[in-house]
Structure to design on (746 residues):
């Protein structure tokens, strides 16, 4: 609506759209839950062989070296065709972090398997006692000669039970003040002795995440990323870019189409009160498109968003939830059906979508934590 | 979030901020209940600065700029609670300029020597700008009969009136002094008045559209929505500045109240509403030609700006506590300005009704 493709971008879009239509298996389209690895990874490897698995990585590391606008084209076309969400911890988190902060040996060992889809990564940040207050994390890594000995527990680890490796924050200096100054960034082989993983079932009925226990796990010292006790800075360095990646308005547009289909099928579209709320939500989707395009323009001009990126996270995730409120309203007494609701215009996934989006305002820093960040770092309100 | 402005646009914004700051709440307070409720000399000053002809093409001696520049000026005017109707004057000038030969009033309107304002609404809810009861008769020498409501008529020398003719909805210029013009004004809580404009067999000039495919009434309606929204954005921004300053200095329980999380989160919600409205307004401004605005986008902007401005200025009163409820404190002036502007040309609910039709949210 606010961005028009350049001729090169338009050509790229056509190429991507044509290829996706021809190659994405029908069974993987329009899934609200992430399919398990046995179904999903063959698709991952197909994108990898095409050279499209990492649009945002530099070419020298197997990425496309694509511009931000080309990356957005890719995200939009993947969403448009209903492609499933890929495991993102390797591609969007540890990959870019290693490219920025890793040693040559770390890059050589870990980047190619991410591109190839041979290794799945998990993020080890949250702990039972360290959620919003992440800096209070208690998992310890004690340097013992040429290795760390790691003990503790991580939780809410997306795909933890499917993963081969974890990048984790661990306490390496228990006395450090502030507490952030005693945290290091480590790479852990989850197949090591002393690692135990237990999947956790979510309210959406899937087992997207897990808890991971470490019982004196030996980690080679060369698996430290950056300097000792510099892990907090490394973990936070690339957050702004990540928020731009996860807040693409395409997901809100898809939700909007789902509501319209359901509302026409159930007849509630004729109700002026419903139409009013739907109009309000659609207008907010337009505002999200504008906000996103504005953020992309700023990023393209090398003026990073900084803490303002929290606005997109809050507005986008809360909008996605209010859209799903409208979806269950449109479905009426079929809102709680476990399977997609059959309609004259095709089946519409209602309850899974509604349950799935609960997570949007929690992960990556809850909406409340984002508000604290804006209050402190953007509005400079007193502490 | 920063806007992507050129250096010319940044300078324009600075100049407009100066103009707005020279007004401010104290001056706005002084104009309450007076007629006209603004300084004609400042309207002429805006004319000299080129702001009233900001959208008028170069060929008609205007500044030939776009919606972004219009919005930059009006945001700052709103932020300073300027009482001069810059926005309405500027969009009226754009309308007067659009025919093959500009209307004779254009030059004076652009210089701020005469004030021409839109008179488009026929109902308090302004649902369909093209469903008009005001009729135009006579081809060569049109005459209008009908009633327009909620007209910002204070100090106006003429009106741009929409009316149904044999060819559909058309736009006409009507002089304040023309035969059959009757104005009934009533004051608003904001201080200025709104008028009901009655026309009875009143002589008028047809204002032709710029492009035959788009009616001049639609083009002017969309311009009004953008202009008022830009001013609403400024009103929100001004209220926000005043309120955040108060959060830093007001102490209770031995601490600045801005250190309390409950109030911080309310403050962040204010900030998010303003920033999302700002992104929407300026992205729409950058994406649209002034004479061919996508109506869905114009309506979306006005809906969001109207709703957010009321909600933000109300929250600002709440954050001030009892002092915010007094007439003496300035924060109430922002709420009242938001109340007036959000209601003009259709409030948020009216815009949502139009949006549902335009975006085909239908069975």
């Amino acid at each position: 609506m606010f961005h028009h493709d350049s001729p090169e971008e338009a050509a790229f879009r056509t190429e991507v759209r044509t290829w996706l239509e021809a190659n994405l298996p029908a069974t993987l389209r329009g899934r609200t839950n992430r399919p398990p690895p046995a179904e999903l990874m063959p698709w991952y490897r197909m994108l990898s062989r095409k050279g499209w698995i990492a649009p945002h990585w530099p070419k020298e590391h197997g990425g496309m070296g694509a511009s931000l606008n080309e990356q957005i084209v890719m995200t939009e076309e993947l969403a448009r065709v209903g492609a499933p969400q890929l495991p993102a911890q390797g591609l969007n988190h540890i990959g870019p972090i290693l490219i920025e902060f890793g040693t040559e040996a770390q890059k050589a060992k870990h980047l190619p398997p991410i591109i190839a889809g041979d290794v799945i990564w998990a993020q080890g940040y949250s702990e039972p006692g360290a959620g919003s207050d992440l800096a209070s994390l208690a998992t310890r890594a004690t340097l013992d000669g040429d290795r760390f000995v790691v003990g503790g527990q991580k939780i809410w680890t997306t795909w933890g039970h499917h993963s081969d490796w974890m990048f984790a924050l661990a306490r390496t200096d228990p006395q450090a003040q502030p507490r952030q100054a005693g945290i290091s960034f480590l790479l852990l082989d989850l197949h090591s002795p002393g690692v135990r993983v237990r999947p956790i079932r979510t309210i959406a009925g899937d087992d997207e995440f897990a808890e991971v226990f470490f019982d004196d796990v030996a980690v080679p010292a060369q698996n430290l990323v950056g300097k000792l006790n510099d892990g907090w800075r490394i973990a936070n360095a690339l957050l702004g870019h990540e928020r731009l990646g996860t807040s693409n308005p395409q997901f809100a547009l898809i939700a909007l189409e789902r509501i319209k289909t359901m509302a026409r099928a159930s007849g509630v579209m004729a109700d002026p009160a419903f139409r009013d709320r739907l109009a309000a939500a659609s207008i907010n989707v337009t505002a999200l498109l504008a906000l996103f395009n504005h953020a992309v323009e700023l990023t393209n001009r090398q003026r990073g968003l900084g803490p303002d990126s929290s606005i997109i996270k809050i507005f986008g995730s809360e909008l996605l939830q209010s859209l799903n409120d409208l979806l269950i309203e449109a479905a009426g007494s079929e809102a709680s059906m476990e399977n997609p609701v059959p309609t004259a215009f095709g089946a519409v996934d209602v309850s899974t979508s509604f349950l799935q989006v609960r997570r949007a305002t929690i992960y990556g820093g809850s909406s409340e934590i984002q508000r604290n960040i804006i209050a402190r770092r953007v509005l400079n309100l007193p502490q | 979030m920063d806007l992507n402005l050129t250096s010319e646009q940044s300078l324009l914004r600075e100049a407009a901020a100066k103009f707005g700051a020279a007004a401010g709440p104290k001056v706005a307070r002084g104009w309450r209940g007076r007629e006209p409720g603004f300084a004609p000399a400042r309207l002429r000053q805006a004319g000299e600065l080129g702001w009233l002809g900001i959208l008028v093409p170069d060929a008609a001696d205007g500044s030939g700029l776009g919606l972004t520049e219009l919005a930059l000026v009006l945001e700052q005017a709103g932020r300073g609670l300027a009482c001069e109707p810059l926005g309405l004057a500027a969009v009226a000038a754009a309308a007067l300029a659009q025919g093959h030969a500009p209307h004779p009033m254009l030059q004076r309107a652009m210089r701020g020597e005469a004030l021409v304002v839109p008179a488009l609404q026929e109902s308090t809810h302004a649902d369909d700008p093209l469903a008009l009861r005001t009729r135009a008769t006579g081809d060569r020498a049109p005459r209008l009969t009908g009633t327009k409501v909620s007209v910002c008529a204070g100090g106006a020398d003429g009106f741009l009136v929409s009316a149904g003719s044999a060819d559909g909805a058309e736009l006409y210029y009507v002089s304040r002094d023309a035969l059959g013009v009757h104005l009934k004004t009533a004051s608003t809580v904001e201080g200025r008045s709104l008028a009901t404009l009655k026309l009875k067999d009143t002589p008028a000039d047809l204002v032709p559209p710029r492009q035959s495919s788009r009616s001049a009434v639609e083009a002017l309606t969309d311009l009004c929505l953008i202009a008022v929204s830009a001013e609403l954005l400024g009103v929100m921004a001004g209220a926000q500045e005043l309120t955040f300053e108060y959060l830093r200095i007001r102490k209770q329980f031995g601490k600045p109240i801005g250190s309390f999380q409950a109030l911080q989160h309310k403050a962040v919600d204010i900030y998010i509403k303003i920033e999302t409205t700002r992104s929407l307004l300026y992205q729409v401004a950058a994406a649209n030609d002034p004479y061919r605005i996508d109506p869905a986008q114009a309506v979306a902007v006005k809906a969001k700006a109207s709703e957010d401005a009321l909600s933000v200025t109300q929250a600002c009163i709440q954050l001030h506590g009892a002092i915010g409820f007094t007439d003496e404190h300035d924060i109430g002036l922002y709420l009242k300005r938001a109340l007036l502007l959000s209601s003009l040309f259709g409030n948020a609910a009216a815009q949502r009704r139009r949006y549902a039709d335009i975006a085909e949210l239908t069975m």
About this structure: Chain A touches chain B at residues 1-2, 260, 264, 267, 269-270, 272, 275-276, 278-280, 282-284, 286-291, 293-295, 297-298, 301, 303, 305, 308, 311, 314-315, 368, 371-372, 374-375, 378-379, 381-383 (CB under 8 Å). The beta strands of chain A are 121-124, 140-144, 147-158, 165-171, 183-189, 195-200, 209-220, 224-225.
